[in-house]
Structures are given as C-alpha cells and as structure tokens.
Write a structure and sequence with these properties.
The chain is mainly β. The protein has one helix and 18 strands. The strands form two sheets. The protein has a 16-stranded mixed beta sheet that branches. It is globular, with a radius of gyration of 22 Å. The N terminus is likely disordered.
C-alpha cells in the first residue's frame, strides 16, 4: 500500500478592505491496494436474477455443509455489505452462498461477472436486497461466504473451484480461514506441502449454528493457483474427509 498525495492550491481574496492573499493547501490521501502501488484490479459481479434467493429466520436452528465459508485476511468490525470482495474468476458466472453464524440469514444465488473476466477480485453487488440493515449489525467474522465456479451449469459445489472472500482493509492477508460446520466432531486440516500445519479450533462464544470451528492456514509461501485442501472430521468411530479446491491469488491480495 502506498499513499499518493495530491495537492491543490487555491488563492482566496478576502474582501475589498483586506486585499491580502491566503494560500490554502489541501492534501488528499488516496489509498491504493495492489502490486506496484497501482489501484487494485476489481470488477463487479451482479445477481443473475433481480430477486435474490435469501431468507432471514430468527428461529433458525440447523445448517448443512461442512466448509461453509473461506476468507483471506482478518475479519474485524461490522460487515460492510456494500464492499464484499472475493478472489477473481475466469468464468463469467459464479455461485454465491452466504450464511451468518447463528444460521438466521442465508442466501444462494448465481452472479454474473460484469465486463471482462480475469480481474484480480470480484465485488459482489448486492449481497442482499432485503436485509442490509440487519446484516450491517453483524460482526464481519460472523458472516460466512462460499463462492465457487461450478464445474457444470448448475451451482453444485462438487469439484468446483472455490474463490475465497478477501477482507478489503485487512492488515494481514497471509492467512486463509476455513469456516467449518463440524456437527460436534473433532476437526483438523491435513498438511499442505509448503505451508505450516493449520490450526483448527472451536469458536468459543456466541451462537454456533451454521459454523462452529475455524481452520487457519498460512498461505504466505504457497504458489498462486488452485490448491486442494482436505478437512478431516472425526467422531471417534470414523473419519470423514471433505476435499475442497481453493483458488489462491497471485500474491497476498
């Protein structure tokens, strides 16, 4: 990140009684993310259907799926509903599933990439049409986003390439976090060549309906491109394995 300073200078005349001049310097700091100090390459993706498939249920008590979200960067503060970004896609459409940790909000929609594909990031606009105020009150860490480019025309996650959410203003982007629904099983992430062992821990506070564990993997030294991750879920009798393909960006985004 490199701040660019733009200076504009204005000469102001006060009135007829005082004919002195004042110089006013206005500094504008523009923050630019991306390699070589250039603005980050971001394109928008809009819902394929104007009416989003979304719901908010105050009594939600169940949720499906093992890996319900992937995130690069540390999630802090409240959810910025108008600036949700993910790793860019080479496909023209992506499948977007979202859920809050308490299971009350969920959505499942297909988004169309605007303009040329291949940008470093996609911004999803909008992520909700009916629940912006409600979602804005959620901590960003309590929002799980699973975006993937499906292998076929249907939005089926099997063999799909997953595009992790990117926290736009995170101070560190070297960690990939997987948000896991363990169904009360012991969770671990199998070793990835070139990366330190992942750390998987239960979430200690708050409602744990949609996901209850986080697995954190240091991706700083991993090459860009797809990587296969394997989540192990052990109930004491057998170990269930969940494979997931994840697109890592060219560099720490």
């Amino acid at each position: 990140m490199r701040p660019l300073y733009l200076w504009r200078q204005f000469n102001l005349t006060s009135d007829l009684k005082r004919r002195s001049f004042f110089n006013i310097a206005i500094a504008v700091v523009i923050t630019a993310w991306g390699s070589n100090g250039l603005a980050q390459d971001i394109t928008n993706a809009h819902p394929q259907n104007a009416a989003l498939d979304e719901s908010f249920d105050p009594t939600a008590a169940v949720s499906g799926g093992v890996v319900v979200g992937l995130r690069i960067g540390e999630a802090t503060g409240k959810l910025a509903v108008d600036n949700v970004q993910v790793v860019g896609a080479s496909q023209s459409t992506v499948c977007v599933r979202a859920v809050t940790r308490d299971g009350r909000f969920s959505s499942n929609n297909k988004y169309v990439v605007q303009g040329a594909t291949g940008a470093a990031r996609l911004r999803l606009l909008p992520i909700t049409t009916h629940y912006s105020k409600i979602l804005s009150d959620y901590d960003s860490s309590d929002y799980a986003l699973k975006v993937f480019a499906a292998a076929g025309n249907d939005c089926l996650p099997k063999d799909a390439l997953n595009l992790p959410q990117i926290v736009p203003d995170a101070s560190s982007r070297d960690v990939l976090t997987l948000l896991i629904n363990s169904s009360s099983r012991r969770v671990s992430l199998e070793d990835v060549p070139g990366a330190p062992a992942a750390r998987c821990n239960p979430i200690s506070a708050g409602a744990r309906i949609a996901f209850d564990h986080e697995c954190r993997l240091d991706i700083a030294k991993l090459p860009s491109g797809p990587v296969k991750l394997t989540v192990d879920l052990d109930d004491g009798f057998a170990v269930e394995k969940e494979d997931i393909r994840v697109a890592l960006p060219e560099e720490a985004p």
